[in-house]
Amino acid sequence: MDIGLIENILFAMVRTGTPLLLVALGAMMSERSGVLNLGQEGMILVGAACGFIAAYAGGSLGLGVLAAVAAGIFVSLIFAFIALTLISNQVATGLALTIFGTGLSAFLGAAYVGQTVTGFAPIAIPFLSDIPLIGQALFAQDLLVYLSFILFAAVFVVMRYTRLGLIIRAVGENPEVAHALGYKVMVVRYCAVMFGGAMAGLAGAYLSLAYTPMWSEGIAAGRGWIALALVVFASWRTERILFGAWLFGFASILHLLLQGYGYEISPNLLAMLPYVITIIVLVMMMYRQKNQGLFAPRSLGQPYHPLK
């Protein structure tokens, strides 16, 4: 295996892992505040559809990204209102949101199936992109990949070093105590859910405007569910999410690599690899929870209302 092939694999791994990184960062922020939103898949699809339609009709990729983020936030607010304000079951609400988003995206994008746009093109950073092995993977990507790096760094700093991150963690661990200390638990949770929706919408924009600049139903292809598993795999720690996203991204392209080397394995079986790995990871994490415990926020998924 020569250096050129390794560079191409790393390049594809980062691209494939980018939507997982974006969604997982948003899901992690939401869950650290104590809110379990299983509607990531639906928000990705709505974001991808609205982003593509806006870019196709308006002729602007920037407009498409803004529309995708706005759509993700809007859908997340539906979840927040039902799950937080109306105090419904968060698991059931999230599953319903995924079904809703899948149907809504198919309805909105029905007239655009198979249409294409000129997507985000890679931009090589001088000198840095020439670094052996990692230069092409990290410094010859498109704008949305670079944005994902910035967002990762921002979330890492906020959650580890700022008062805002401390408040979010406090709300997720014990909302009653946080409320007693004067923190607005509902506001924090609403904002965390909205951030998760924005990140899912941005991931959708990446899929339909950069990764494969076209619209097709089900373009998310289960990435929302993989991202949820990724958060568990990372033990709700920001720094581990980046590694996990690239690991799952590598698993997603592994079947193409094996086919290129001529392994006589069914392409359908190889395409199952990322989902099989997801199941294995979840089983391993549940075993760890039983024996050592996880780092999940204590109030994750539990209903709360200050007037209760």
From TrEMBL:
Give the UniProt keywords, A-Z: Cell membrane, Membrane, Sugar transport, Transmembrane, Transmembrane helix, Transport
Q: Entry's CDD domains? A: TM_PBP1_transp_TpRbsC_like
Q: Does the keyword Transmembrane apply?
A: yes
Q: What is its main location?
A: membrane
Q: Which residues are listed as membrane-spanning?
A: 12-30, 42-59, 65-87, 94-113, 133-159, 187-209, 215-234, 241-263, 269-287
Q: How does it sit in the membrane?
A: Multi-pass membrane protein
What subcellular locations does the record give?
A: Cell inner membrane
Classification via InterPro entries: ABC_transp_permease (IPR001851)
**PANTHER family per the UniProt record, alphabetical:** ABC TRANSPORTER PERMEASE PROTEIN (PTHR43370:SF2), SUGAR ABC TRANSPORTER INTEGRAL MEMBRANE PROTEIN-RELATED (PTHR43370)
UniProt name for this protein: Simple sugar transport system permease protein
